[in-house]
Amino acid sequence: MGEFGAEHRDKKDNRAYYTSMTSVSDLPEGYDQGRFFILYPGVFTTLSNFATMHFSGLRVHGGTAPIAPPDADPDDFQSAVRFNVIYYPPRGQTMGNQRYTLGGLPNNEPFFISPEMTSAKYLHNSILSYHMLISTPARPIEREKRGWCVRAAYLEDGHVVSARRAHVNFVIRAFYSLILYFILQLPEAYGVRVDLNTFFAAFSMLNEQNERERVQPWHAAPGFRYEGDETLTMDTSADGRPMQPSREILDDSRFRDQEDIREPLRAKWDRYYHHVASHIPYGADKLCLDVPDDDETSVESTLNLKTQTSIPRTPNIPPQATAGGRPERMSIHLHSLLLMYLCSVMLCIDIGRGRNSNRRNGREGNTGAFCH
């Protein structure tokens, strides 16, 4: 908090704002409530309860402590409380030069909104009169000032591995997912939803022909899609100042849950996944057992651990019994053994052909030994 009580200036206050102070002390009856003063121009007021003062904290100000009456009971000293509520305008905060915590990250660390994310110095459209007014650098902004990291990142480096439209789609979809993640941290009673059609329609890009086009909506996106034709726009007055848009009441029944689209796609992927995974030999599949990174369990102990369990490695595949009463995985084993046998036969045939070719050429080799 810094200095208080004694005469002082709040040197870090914004000079365009006033400080507001309200007194809510709890003093026994008969106590003098003290005074608040501003040395120049020599103003003071009694700190009676709920009295509110507005002043510039850059002026020298201070106050006096409450005074007990001469016949006060010493036991009352412990219950006497001076309490003032101060609303003060720090220059860093009011000028957008301080960060604030927006929410929490998956590792329970805070996510900060920094000045570089909100300052007009970086977020401008390079309109000549505007950037001259606030003394901002013209575009393009240098790499060191617009945000970057020492690692390869999709924002800056994604164009190396992706076409332009694919790169933009990936980034906008990441922004959409990020917004949904943080919205989950709002109180559930707010019922906040994001219309994915409106979200993606807000973004546009220049294609390879230098034509501006909108980013296409994400068909399989999570969240909700609003099926309506209303478009809420920001009205502006003649002088260009934004007017408050009219409040639009939406019909909740017109929000379509994207799970109706995502669930069939998820089921299709699961079927494909299980089909491909079913051809992996069980001996190799045992190596896929999840072991923590800091666990020094050997491969041998991992295999033993996997052998002791009857739960299949592939998720969501129950061990359905066959006509012979054995689990379905037994058929997978047979298929794997059959595949290995066929590969061995083909290898022997190929080696045999090579041996016959050597005999015809007058060279006797021992390649046939591999077939024994």
Note down, in words, how this protein is organized.
The longest helix has 32 residues, at 329-360. By secondary structure, this protein is of the alpha+beta class. Strand 9 (204-206) and strand 10 (212-214) form a beta hairpin. It is elongated and about 120 Å long. It has ten helices and twelve strands.
How much beta, percentage-wise?
A: 5-15%
Total number of helical segments?
A: 10
Q: Note poorly predicted spans.
A: 127-133, 289-330, 364-372
The helicity comes to 25-40%
Overall outline: elongated
Map the helices and strands.
Blueprint: E1 19-23, E2 35-38, E3 43-46, E4 52-55, E5 61-63, E6 84-87, H1 91-94, E7 100-104, E8 110-113, H2 115-118, H3 128-133, H4 154-157, H5 164-183, H6 196-201, E9 204-206, E10 212-214, E11 224-226, E12 255-257, H7 259-277, H8 282-285, H9 299-308, H10 329-360
Antiparallel strand pairs: 1-4, 1-6, 2-3, 2-5, 7-8, 9-10, 11-12
In short:
The chain is α+β, with helices and mostly antiparallel strands.
Comma- or semicolon-separated keywords:
single chain; three-stranded antiparallel sheet; 10 helices; 12% strand; elongated
